[in-house]
Amino acid sequence: MAELEAATVAYQAAVTPEAVAILKARGIERAEATGFRLGVVADPFPGHEKFRGFLSIPYLDHTGHPLSMRFRCLQEHVHRDFGHGKYMSLKDEPARVFNIGAIHRADDELHIAEGEFDSMILNKVGMPAIAIPGAQGWSSHHRRMVAGFSKVYVWGDPDEAGSEFIGKVTRAVRNAVGVRLLKADGDVTELYLKGGVAALRARKRGE
């Protein structure tokens, strides 16, 4: 893990104005970027070469140390035409839950989002949230991680995959309830950008 920590520190120090602008456009300000230790792969560590120029998203333990890392392309292009996905993980890296520290910080309510950025936004507005990247990412063993909360709110995107995600989690987790976003809302991040924290709280209440 020492090398992953070193990579995280190096990538944090290489954040570019372009990356800052992209993050800010998604509602991620300096405080969130610093807290989640986001960075840019300027000088890739061994094994990270194909992620040069990508945003680095470390998966931190509850003390803030990286356990793994995902990468997001910062270019607005058809990613497949350039031989990569929008989001990419290291080869053979096991699937992990993003922001497990929220489980330790939350009181009696926890939120589950589909993506890392949506989780960051929910945490920003005072809703402790983990993320299960991708609608297919939920596994039965995740249920143990969220046991003990009086209420678990599941935020799925307003599409078929999002509905499937909500269904999977609410069937597996007692006291879990789905938060239904409308097509006009977009995902959590888009709704926040349109209506701020008030819009998110309204959807949480089912309004």
CATH topology of the largest domain: Dna Topoisomerase Vi A Subunit, Chain: A, domain 2
Main sheet properties: 4 strands, antiparallel
Give the strand order of the largest sheet, numbering strands 1, 2, ... along the chain: 1-2-3-4
Q: Find the structural class using helix and strand composition.
A: alpha/beta
Low-confidence stretches: none
Count of domains: 2
Q: Which percent range fits the helix content? A: 25-40%
Provide an overview of this structure.
By secondary structure, the chain is of the alpha/beta class. The protein folds into two domains: 2-89, DNA primase, catalytic core, N-terminal domain (DNA primase DNAg catalytic core, N-terminal domain, Alpha-Beta Complex), CATH 3.90.980.10; 101-204, Dna Topoisomerase Vi A Subunit, Chain: A, domain 2, CATH 3.40.1360. It contains eight helices and eight strands, in the order H-H-H-E-E-E-E-H-E-H-E-H-E-H-E-H. It has helices at 2-13, 17-25, 30-35, 101-105, 116-124, 142-145, 160-172, 188-204, and strands at residues 39-40, 55-60, 66-72, 87-89, 109-113, 129-131, 151-156, 176-180. The strands form two sheets. It has a four-stranded antiparallel beta sheet, with helices on one face. Strands 6-5-7-8 form a four-stranded parallel beta sheet. Helix 7 links the parallel strand 7 and strand 8. Helix 5 (116-124) crosses helix 8. The model has no long low-confidence stretch (mean pLDDT 92).
